[in-house]
Amino acid sequence: MGRPRTTSDEAILQATARALGRHGPQGLTLAAAASEAGLAPATLVQRFGSKRGLLLALAAHAADTAGRPFEQARQEHGSPLEALRAALIHLSEGVATPEDLAGSLGFLQLDLTDPEFRAHAAEHARRVRDEIAALLDAAVTGGELATGTDAAALAKAVHVAYNGALILWGLTGDGPLPAAMAEAIDQALRPYLTA
User: Fold this and answer.
1) How distant is the alpha carbon of residue 40 from its chain centre?
2) Were both Cys, which of 97, 119, 156, 180 would link to 169 (CB 3.0–4.6 Å)?
3) CB of 86 closer than 8 Å to CB of 76
4) Three-state DSSP class for 164?
5) With the CA atoms of 158, 159, 160 and 161 taken in that order, what torsion angle do they form, in degrees rounded to the nearest 10?
6) What is the Cα–Cα distance from 160 to 168, expressed in whole angstroms?
């Protein structure tokens, strides 16, 4: 009989994400991820097989949990548009410096060049877009956005604004990222607001 797991896979993946932010995917080692999680590297090998297996598990986890910030924001905010802003700002919380963003962009290289990673990234993008569209649809129904607003089309524009705000902020460093993110979202929504 094996030892019971004292650290969940989710906790390990959260620790891996933190280590990834510091080292990027190329510089990340199993030892660095294990150290962040307070485990031995052999434990990661037992659970995930390799660094690639660990990174694929992280990518799958990100896709599987993409809706969590939106669910939380719905519970905390009465307005769909306030929930949308809060959720998208929460999604960007792991990025505090341009160097953090560089680690994420390093992961994007894997997403663009490796079909297994790309499948997880595409699923993550679809889930985020669908969550954005659902909140925008609720905002139309609730009268925050103009009647007849195409929530699906606007969701694509908001998603692009979110990703664009990340890149521009990383290049310019103008102000805190949450403020830059809120401004980009507000600009995308402004033509559709009822008040």
Assistant:
1) 27
2) 180
3) yes
4) helix
5) 50
6) 12
The letter for the amino acid at 83 is A
User: How many Cβ atoms are within 10 Å of 176's Cβ, its own excluded?
Assistant: 11
pTM (predicted TM-score)? 0.89
Q: CA–CA separation, 97 vs 111, rounded Å?
A: 21
**Residue ranges per structural domain of the chain:** 1-58, 66-192
Q: What is the CATH topology of the domain spanning 1-58? A: Arc Repressor Mutant, subunit A (1.10.10)
Contacts of 116 (CB under 8 A, 6+ apart): 56
User: Per-residue pLDDT tens for 162-194?
Assistant: 999 999 998 988 888 999 999 999 999 999 999
Q: Which CATH class is domain 66-192?
A: mainly alpha
- What DSSP assignment string belongs to 15-44? HHHHHHHHHHHHH--HHHHHHHHTS-HHHH
User: Quick one: which of 18, 12, 120, 137 has its CA closest to 70?
Assistant: 137
- Torsions phi, psi of 78, nearest 5? -75, -25
The identity of residue 175, as a single letter, is G
pLDDT digits (tens, 9 = 90+) for 132-150: 999 999 999 999 999 999 9
